Amino acid sequence: MTVLKTSMRNFLAHKGRMALSAVAVLLSVAFVCGTLVFTDTMSTTFDKLFAATSSDVTVSAKGASDTGETTSDNGKPPVLPASVLDEVRGADGVKSAEGTVFSTSVTVVDGDKDSLSPTSGGPTIVGSWNGNDARTMKITDGAAPKGPEQVMVDADTADKHDLTLGDEIAVINVVGTHTAKVSGIADFTVTNPGAAIFYLDTKTAQQVLVGESGVYTNVNVTAAAGVSDAQLKKNVAAELGGGFKVQTAEETAEANQKDVEGFMSVMKYAMLGFAGIAFLVGIFLIINTFSMLVAQRTREIGLMRAIGSSRKQVNRSVLAEALLLGVFGSILGVGAGIGLAVGLMKLMGSMGMQLSTDDLTVAWTTPALGLLLGVVVTVLAAYLPARRAGKISPMAALRDAGTPADVKAGRIRGLIGLALTGAGGFALYLAGAADKAADGSLWLGLGVVLSLIGFVVVGPVLAGGVVRVLGAVLLRAFGPVGRMAERNALRNPRRTGATGAALMIGLALVACLSVVGSSMVASATDELDKTVGTDFIIQSDSGQLITPQAVQAVKSAPAVDRVTEYKWTQADFTTPDGKTLKDTAITAADPTYATDLRVETVAGKLGDAYRPDSMSVHEDFAKDHGISIGSKIDVAFEDGSTGALTVRAITSSEAVVDAGAMYTSIDTLATYVPADRMPLDMLLFVSAKDGQVDAAYTALKDSLHDYPQYTVRDQTDYKEALKDQIGQLLNMIYGLLALAIVVAILGVVNTLALSVVERTREIGLMRAIGLSRRQLRRMIRMESVVIALFGALLGLGLGMGWGATAQQLLALEGLKVLEIPWPTITGVFIGSAFVGLFAALIPAFRAGRMNVLNAIATE
């Protein structure tokens, strides 16, 4: 009880200093809990949606996916004949059955040819209005579609694009372009996770989406009273025989859930990873806080020991304070995490993915995990200062002599840090020298961990040299004030090292990712310059295949010399070594592709692969299966027949563009795949007539005006798009790393604030002999800047080392250009100085307000 009272008194006596540490715990716990609540809520939302939209039993074509997605290579959904509907209705236990048609291989535009597809990445669905949809949609304006001239749209899409009754929209797909006017607007009775949905009547949907009447993509079956879904499935399957996919509502919902689980898992664990980084940075803040509080209470601890307190009691007292801090910060963090989850839901709503707070899911494990993490991390971080406090002898404490073992412990720490750093550096060297990326990645991970720990441990040793250099470059110009700031930073190297290390971790990751991102862009740009021999590349950024109508529009554009079509399909390969490889990718292109993409070959000529019944394979594939020029491979094409193709070329496996591709000609593909099942083009490569590049660029954009889903890019545009994609990813990562940097800034603030309290008497004496308030504040600001720049130098240097090593591994995959983004590195370094200035504002202001006489009288 005495220990608890003492801990509570000390905790409240330093509540201002504890508050900053509590904020670090709060932020870290909030990020963890917010991530868990957000992803659990998304899971609940999708569960409700899939449960509500699934009929008791669904019948679909054998080629359809489990989720009902319709992304056939030929642009049409797999369908069922109308006779299936009659057979299903005749099965035992069927109350009702309804045929429906829908497709996701569509683009929908308004009257101005602007896309109505979601920007959040959700699907665009065009389907027939049916009873199953009527259970989850409520018509709020107008009426359901009747006839080919009418279409109904969901309310979210209508609101986003200002659609009203009577507005004209167009549905574009492989069948053609169909225009209709909005006859009704329907609102979701469940949460819309971001899809854009358009409804036609059944006959119109069949013609628009498939191009023929009397077919369905699905048959939705409702069970009679007392018949379970499992029994109904069994009855329907028995009635139909083989060749169809029959699923219960539960199976359909599970398949849909699995489809979104991958995305949610990546997002969840990525965000938790950044929360872990913030926790790691927060450990340094807590260690520094308790180390300085213990140092300031040295005499008090000595008195406690002198009157009978044991080492364990002193240790427990400090740990009890940490426990209070952890509990307080974690409780606030759990609440803040729920608020963060709501904020993320609102953010997703602005992007088109509507998540209702009615579905907010807070599992009991979330606050429990948040409290556990916050308390455990805080107590563990306070263990070293607590142990150090317990070791202080009463006599040494009473005469302010400190601990004699500090110098010896510092030397041991330095040796351990150098050993760890050396081991980390050697592991990074082995990673860079690896022959295989998989082997090198293991060494890279080990090198990152060891070098990071090594720099943290050796930080106090490095602080002396680095701070002196920074002082000589930056502080000497400020005369005595600058020299005092330098000496203050050097006064306690352990404290400076720990404070700098907190900032170092976040900046090391920023530098590493900047180097990797810049190198990827530079490598890809270099590879494009070397290999791509065409003027323009046409593709859909949303992954839509290119319809024959769009291909014809491109070929008809003025100033165009040639158009190379590029298709992708799957086939079963039977190789000369007798092995059968299922669902292997094969690329079919026009013969001019050998000119448009300069692919290096190790045997034969790529152009020969486009001869009749010929193909190419890549080098690794050839080695694995004993293939050489002239070898024959039996290729069983998806949706087609089998042909014996002769290998005419073996391409290098080190290619970056189209890495690992195996080629054949479109004419060869057409020999074995029926015309109505031929896959659509993924890309078009277009070359302009001599001297007419600008005219062709304009003509191509004009020709695709009616097809806004496709983008025309020249090589400059393509490089910029690649740079933007990587830049957006990096910006998102930097945003998440900002949490760790914010916690590091709190650490600098806390260290300076406690340092000011620790030097109260000294500050009073300096003021008494003539140091002005402005000079005092400047001294503290400079000290803060030096500490921040010390952490930045370590972090940026370490991160660039990690990034350069990672690039060496990427070079094994063809990304051979190392590029250091000096503008980014310089900007981060300069920004660190401003971080130091910002962190010093409050401590410097408080120091300047000290009463001189009271400060001198302080013990």
UniProtKB/TrEMBL annotation:
Regions crossing the membrane: 269-295, 318-342, 362-384, 412-430, 442-475, 496-516, 732-757, 784-804, 824-845
Pfam family, one: MacB_PCD
Domain MacB-like periplasmic core: from-to ranges: 19-237, 499-699
Keyword Transmembrane: yes
Membrane topology, as annotated: Multi-pass membrane protein
Entry's Gene Ontology cellular component terms: plasma membrane
Subcellular location: Cell membrane
Protein name in UniProt: FtsX-like permease family protein
Organism, scientific name: Streptomyces calvus
Lineage per the UniProt record: Bacteria, Bacillati, Actinomycetota, Actinomycetes, Kitasatosporales
